[in-house]
Amino acid sequence: MRLSDTIPPEFEAVKDNDETILWTGQPALIPYLTRGIPFLIFGLFWGFFDLFFIMNMIKFGGGMGLFLIPFFFLHLFPFYGSILNIVRLALVHRNTRYAVTNKRLMLRSGIWGIDFKSLDYDRISNLEVNVNPLEKLFNVGSIRAYTGETVVTRNSSRSVFNEFISIADPYEVFKQIKQVSVDIKTDWNYPNKLRPEENPGYSTKYTPKE
Questions:
Q1: Rounded distance, CA 47 to CA 95, Å?
Q2: Do 78 and 143 reside in the same domain of the chain?
Q3: Which residues does residue 107 pair with via DSSP β-bridges, in sequence order?
Q4: Which residues make Cβ contacts (< 8 Å) with residue 11, sequence separation at least 6?
């Protein structure tokens, strides 16, 4: 696995002293923003529907129609909320970075503040790569990692996946993560050769294969 040519200083600030960053990436903008398209379509239909009623109430309802405008302003929340969601995604995209290290996966995101999430390799129980039709047009794809997290509601629960969204060369990055994960887990479970009989524990440094 090749080391990333450019290591963002944000990851340098949170990585361990003996940790090596092997790859970094950022989502492609257009495919990333399309995650808000379903809500935007719903919001636009909602807005046109409300606008039709507002115009008719003003035209035929007289003063009563004007009185109900504040109500429709609140009722239009799905319309302007869907537009604000696209703006939110654009702001989040600006701060989103992903990294693969010799110890973990790291996800950086946020709007005003910056959040980091870390996924140790021993926690990852399932890893998959997906490329939807739009991502295929931009030669990008998404990698999903499952670490056992769930969200529990009153009537059900659902699995939570952490994602590298719309990154370049998704299949190559997927294979690199799998390789590092297998190497690290193997080294943890099966001690390296030439270790002494009394071993204080895992203290070797992982060096990726060329």
A1: 30
A2: no
A3: 98, 117
A4: 21, 24, 97, 99, 106, 108
Residues 155 and 176 in one domain: yes
Q: What is the pLDDT of residue 203?
A: 57
Establish if 27 belongs to a structural domain: no
84 and 167 share one domain: no
Entry pTM: 0.76
Range of the domain at 51: 36-88
Whether 26 maps to a domain, the answer reads no
pLDDT at 188: 64
Would you state the structure tokens that stand for residue 166, as one six-digit string? 């719309």
- Tens-place pLDDT, residues 65-83: 556 667 777 778 888 888 9
| Location of structure tokens 């008719």 | 56
Q: Are residues 166 and 118 in the same domain?
A: yes
10 Å CB burial of residue 23 (0-12, 13-18, 19+) is buried
Residue 208 resides in a domain: no
Report pLDDT digits (tens) over 108-163.
998 887 889 999 998 888 899 999 999 999 999 999 999 888 877 777 778 888 99
